[in-house]
Amino acid sequence: MEHIRTTKVEQVKLLDRFSTSNKSLTGTLYLTATHLLFIDSHQKETWILHHHIALVEKLALTTSGCPLVIQCKNFRIVHFIVPRERDCHDIYNSLLQLSKQAKYEDLYAFSYNPKQNDMERLQGWQLIDLAEEYKRMGVPNSNWQLSDGNREYKICETYPRELYVPRIASKPIIVGSSKFRSKGRFPVLSYYHQNKELNAMANRAAGKGYENEDNYSNIRFQFVGIENIHVMRSSLQKLLEVNGTKGLSVSDFYSGLESSGWLRHIKAVMDAAIFLAKAIMVENASVLVHCSDGWDRTSQVCSLGSLLLDSYYRTIKGFMVLIEKDWISFGHKFSERCGHLDGDPKEVSPVFTQFLECVWHLTEQFPQDFEFNEAFLLQIHEHIHSCQFGNFLGNCQKEREELKLKEKTYSLWPFLLDDQKKYLNPLYSSKSPKFAVLEPNTVSFNFKFWRNMYHQFDRTLHPRQSVFNIIMNMNEQNKQLEKDIKDLESKIKQRKNKQTDGILTKELLHSVHPESPTLKTSLCFKEQTLLPVNHALRTIEGSNPADNRYSEYAEEFSKSEPGVVSLECGVARMTC
Amino acid sequence: MEFAELIKTPRVDNVVLHRPFYPAVEGTLCLTGHHLILSSRQDNTEELWLLHSNIDAIDKRFVGPLGTIIIKCKDFRIIQLDIPGMEECLNIASSIEALSTLDSITLMYPFFYRPMFEVVEDGWHSFLPEQEFELYSSATSEWRLSYVNKEFAVCPSYPPIVIVPKSIDDEALRKVAAFRHGGRFPVLSYYHKKNGMVIMRSGQPLTGTNGRRCKEDEKLINATLRAGKRGYIIDTRSLNVAQQARAKGGGFEQEAHYPQWRRLHKSIERYHILQESLIKLVEACNDQTHNMDRWLGRLEASNWLTHIKEILTTACLAAQCIDREGASILIHGTEGTDSTLQVTSLAQIILEPRSRTIRGFEALIEREWLQAGHPFQQRCAQSAYYNSKQKWESPVFLLFLDCVWQILRQFPCSFEFNENFLIMLFEHAYASQFGTFLGNNESERCKLKLQQKTMSLWSWVNRPGELSKFTNPLFEANNLVIWPSVAPQSLQLWEGIFLRWNRSSKYLDEAYEEMVNIIEYNKELQAKVNVLRRQLAELETEDGMQESP
């Protein structure tokens, strides 16, 4: 708490991000050890986790006060006006400190207490078991074995302890290979594809340079141009700049989308994953994937390729397994890429975000093949940055063990599983065969801007009624109705029996089945928030009855036509 | 019959048909006066049944004796026919060219079409102006029906019956007509029952360079204002364009002569600019090879979504004047037959729940497009593949439908109809067996005797069997004004139209079906619960009676 000087500031204005007329809400700003909280005059709360803050800026003093702009890693952007410069300065300094911690131990996960005992905590961590996962894939088998070479992290520090390698790969071969590969990341099994006719696998390694073709017989090389982390970082930055523009024109939006290159990068990752899946499915070929270090682009391609090949990874649990396997265990540097600690900004890059976006594009093309919905992807994205759970802290397994994360923090997955209902895709068809391979169409027009990710907090840009939420609610309601029918039928049967028996009990007379509350829910305007979140963490926009989105619109609209709201300008605008 | 002369080769065997997402089919090609038919001989079912009037352009190619005709349709589909024999191919091509560009409207298919269904309700009488007016007359007595245009003499592009302020007599209307472009004097387009405000539409005033004025015109539009209230004139041209129009005898309402009105200029593009935009967009969508940058670049360069945004923004502005500012509005551009109608009809979609129902939307199209004199015959004569030298083709109606689709996307439960309904209307506006979209205005339709000689689209659509295809399962009526977002991030390419023939929609269709199943199942369960509950209640009453003798 030593960083907090001012805990409460009154008469703070929260400006609407897209309003050209600078519409605002007035309220009180609170600073806590973990969150910045704004409560407006309608008692609507906006919570911002310190760890989500990517950038705090204090702009030049204006007549109404001192502007404070906060950009978050979950793409929320808030613009406050603090009446006194002094207060603004205090908050600004506090946020600078609080949003950039130097030590892992100061991150939220180490103080977050969901009131579970050690037993529950441990069970939570055991929920996703990678040994089980390799068994599911069918390894070890006659060709593949578990290697104990890296049991003590001696061969490769950024790999997990358990690694699967070909049976013929003896320890000297492994050690030799590791010396030839960047960071000791020798080729290991990432995914083993089981099928009646074929057994093929995708494995992974690190590169730095590439293999001399003469030395690798029976191997075909394919270079797919996925750009490096620096290109991806600046691409996202450009995208966000364009999107944040007030009064954005269609033309500027599309030329900005184009020049940011963002969708080009997404398509490149997708194309590479499809190449991998096709090689395995169509050519029965095994694939070795690597980039330079093998923890960014390699993770993207291996995980996405596995997702195309194996429907298990398209279930809620399977997707968690996939992330644990290809991202967490194989050493994607989450802490560096997400900037968890005050570190090198050049190491930050939206590599995992791109993976989630690729998955989203797949869910758009194959609306019935995924057990989970968009909210699930958004929630995972929320938590890679929140530092609330231990899963994504650290940069590799070895580091995580040293941090004793399993003893000191909680795993995200059991919490998501408990909330499963919110993340179920109502259209999911589990009928699809286990190895139904997805063959996405990657013609450019299939890639759309992911509004619900990059504008998840800008509710005015969203559809006002969500088909998805309605169907989701209806699915839930159907389950309740099925139950009601059973209850009613058994009651009627009971009645009939009793009538024939001529026995009546007073008690039953009063047990008229209460009308199911689900029946009264209307389809329209009962929209749930798109992003189901912990209520304590963040308010649910749009769920408050006072939060009338039609009144928001007038303002939204006025940005394109300020002449309407202040009628005096009408003529002036016309003539200019 | 003239058609026989145009058909040199009525039948060719061993023709191969290539269509997107279907395997190639070999069969016999037949040309009739109005259709191109290909049937595979194996099972004797028609594989293709294409109206000549749906053909926008054709290309032919030859490789040795094998000819290929590529047919580009007005609904943007492209199909290919491989025809053995050069002469046959040339004959077929020239026949198609001639038959798809018939000069005389009375030779068009609607005049020959005999419906295979029983007409339950004659669509020609489904939306009579008198009936539509009754919806208003219960709420207001300030308006009346005028028959001043009975013989189409006052305004050739207006219907015989229009709604005007009660205090303005027909004589004054004649004078106003002389002051407005094309005789299009201000008439009522929409009455907002909530606050009595109205949308009127007209052609531009013919002020010319010397600032001509017309007292009757001023009186007419002032008659629509409440005491002490101001109104808005929304001019769908930029101020610059409106000023230039004066040189050609047109112009806009001068502040000095219309002191109670504030004029707002919103620029909506017209004619060939829209047509070029459509051509570019369809070209971009049809090219599967370009990389991401090129695709986004071409999508942007087509400007289609910019036009969508302009039109929607102006419609929102109009609706905002009515509902939020409590002010009446007059809308016009130059002729008042294109952008004006886009704005008046979309404003109604936003403001009025009825126009979001199937019948209400049909009534809206009848009122605000057909009777209001949108020149369908000219605008929809050609589509995206025909590079016309004429300037009257323009996808004005398609842009309107696209705007409706955008609102439907944002309010998926507020419309009784679904996307298929909009697509169907697009198809029929360009090529149809029905007479509804023939002609450029009521006067022409009258002369063509369409009511007697052709079938109305509504006669077919409004049968229960057809309606079910166009009904939105998510619809739940609400009485709200629905304000769409016009931010570029909220607008989307209408894939159902523009990517329809460029990618398979199998998975999306299946998902839609599943959604319908869930909704149907829900209804079923609710009905069952209600029955059981009633049954239980009855049993309980019986028990109660038995117990208390």
TrEMBL record, chain A:
SUPFAM superfamilies found in the cross-reference section: (Phosphotyrosine protein) phosphatases II (SSF52799), PH domain-like (SSF50729)
Entry annotated with the keyword Lipid metabolism? yes
Pfam families in the cross-refs: Myotub-related (PF06602), PH-GRAM_MTMR6-like (PF21098)
Task: Give all residue intervals belonging to the Myotubularin phosphatase domain.
Answer: 124-454
Please tell me where substrate binds in this chain: 228-229, 291-297
Q: Which UniProt keywords apply?
A: Coiled coil, Hydrolase, Lipid metabolism
Query: Family per UniProt?
Result: Belongs to the protein-tyrosine phosphatase family. Non-receptor class myotubularin subfamily.
What is this protein identified as?
A: Myotubularin related protein 6
Source organism per UniProt: Ailuropoda melanoleuca (Giant panda)
TrEMBL record, chain B:
Q: How does it sit in the membrane?
A: Peripheral membrane protein
Question: A GO molecular function for this record?
Answer: protein phosphatase binding
Where does it localize?
Cell projection, Ruffle membrane; Cytoplasm, Perinuclear region; Endoplasmic reticulum
Alphabetized, the UniProt keywords read: Acetylation, Cell membrane, Cell projection, Coiled coil, Cytoplasm, Endoplasmic reticulum, Membrane
Chain coiled-coil ranges: 508-542
Q: Which residues form the Myotubularin phosphatase domain?
A: 123-498
Top-level taxon in the UniProt lineage: Eukaryota
Concerning its family, UniProt says: Belongs to the protein-tyrosine phosphatase family. Non-receptor class myotubularin subfamily.
Q: Which SUPFAM superfamilies match?
A: (Phosphotyrosine protein) phosphatases II, PH domain-like
| Protein name as it appears in the record | Myotubularin-related protein 9
PROSITE patterns, A to Z: PPASE_MYOTUBULARIN
Q: Does the keyword Membrane apply?
A: yes
Primary residence: membrane
Q: Which GO terms describe its cellular component?
A: cytosol; endoplasmic reticulum; perinuclear region of cytoplasm; protein-containing complex; ruffle membrane
